[in-house]
Amino acid sequence: MELTNNLLMTLPEIVLSVGALVLMMAAAWGGGARAIGWTAVAVLIGASISLIGPATTGGDAFGGLYKADAFASFAKVLIYGAAAVAILMAPSFFERTSGDAMRPEYPVLILLSAVGMGMMVSAGDLLTLYVGLELQSLAAYVLASMMRRDLRSAEAGLKYFVLGALASGILLYGISLVYGFSGTTMFDAVATAYTGAHSKGLLFGLVFVFAGLAFKMSAVPFHMWTPDVYEGAPTPVTAFFGSAPKVAAILLAVRVAIEAMGPAVFEWRQIVVFASLASIALGAAGAIGQTNIKRLLAYSSINNVGFALVGLAAGTEQGVSAVLTYMAIYVVMTLGSFLIVLQMKDHEGQSIESIASLSGMSRTRPGLAFALAVMMFSLAGIPPLFGFYAKFVVFWAAVQAGLFVYASIGIALSAVGAYYYLRIVKTMYFDEPAAAFAPVNDRVEGGLIVASTVFLSPLGYFLIPALGLWSAVAAKALF
């Protein structure tokens, strides 16, 4: 009976694992890539449906190694949704860019990565955390170098692999220190070890664990891989990297900070505050001189990680709820931006990534220009768009926790970051028109762009009661 309950609590991962294995066999026997892609989306929907019941309310599974709670379910809905969009946007991209159909391994790797991310956000033990993180990373390394004949893609995969291996080593060293000085890897027992006076070894372990997690979320000073990988990887893969793994890494850090190292809040808050302000500042400064739209969005993701960490620095239930709300809105902003980047093609079907090519787009492609303007204004946090609310809730949580100076510095730096977003809007609406992009007749991409634009418009504020309640229930699960 206990085994049955444990399996029911881990049902989302079981659905994804079985689906990935079946689709892998279908790919080996010559199944069509598009059919496998749509089936993978159906598997992700099935995994989302399986969150209803024990997977959300079951509690601890397998002796506390795995946690089936509302916090993990919130994260998994975002992860599965972003993964599905990354699959849907891929077929037309590969056909237009390389002239080849999407490889059937692509959706399979996305599913396997989703299994790892699900384990990450449900981890109740440092070893479960590490196994989930490595499963996600191994799939991501292959995805980054998916276009083997593209030198930039191969370079992106190699850089991601080398630096990812270094970060995994740092994280594993931190885990070994925590285990050595606490005698356990279970989150609950580790929290007991951090209660009261604790050894310097535990403090060093905390620092190394957060350093390893900072790489996975591309927070400063472990951000160096992000611009190169975002630029070199295929655009659908870049969209995936900027959304689902980002959610998994940040919310994993939230769970570790609150559940495993909650009593040491003073120590880890210093690390989070530094990483947050440094990410906001460097993300803003680094984006200003960029001429490639994907590199600019890479620095934008670094910048947004900094804002998400503002809520974590509060260390309160309200702060965790704010992080969840921020990530839900951030995922839509990121995916919407990359969907528009996919529309940037010349008449030969080749991708155009220069910001200069956006010149005068309001006159050549007014609908696309409006959608991109909504994304940029939302990322900048300018009211009345929904992106403003995301920044408001995290800063309000910091203020409520008494971090007035920290919040003030973050708000001031966010004004600096708005410059490069507004520069793109200025380029589209006030510069002389460049050559018009070729029309892309893809109903799936067009529908997703419209949906994300509507979500980020002022109409998104009608979702605040439901989103606020959902994030509050999810945050309460950690406390």
Summarize the structure.
The protein has helices at residues 2-9, 11-28, 33-49, 54-57, 70-88, 90-98, 105-121, 126-144, 151-182, 187-194, 200-216, 226-232, 235-241, 244-260, 265-288, 293-314, 317-342, 361-364, 366-380, 386-400, 404-430, 443-456, 464-476, and strands at 59-61, 66-68. The chain is mostly helical. The relative contact order is 0.10.
Strand content: under 5%
Q: What does the largest sheet look like?
A: 2 strands, antiparallel
Envelope shape: globular
* Strand tally: 2
**Share of helix, binned:** over 70%
What low-confidence regions span 5 or more consecutive residues with pLDDT below 50? none
Q: Specify the number of helices.
A: 23
Q: How many whole angstroms does the radius of gyration measure?
A: 21 Å
Mean of pLDDT: 87
Give a structural overview.
With 479 residues, the protein is an all-alpha fold. The protein has 23 helices and 2 strands. Strands 1-2 form a two-stranded antiparallel ribbon. A hairpin with a 4-residue loop joins strand 1 and strand 2. Helix 12 packs antiparallel against helix 13, helix 17 packs across helix 23 and helix 19 runs antiparallel to helix 21. The longest helix has 32 residues. The protein is globular. The two termini are 28 Å apart. The relative contact order is 0.10. The model has no long low-confidence stretch (mean pLDDT 87).
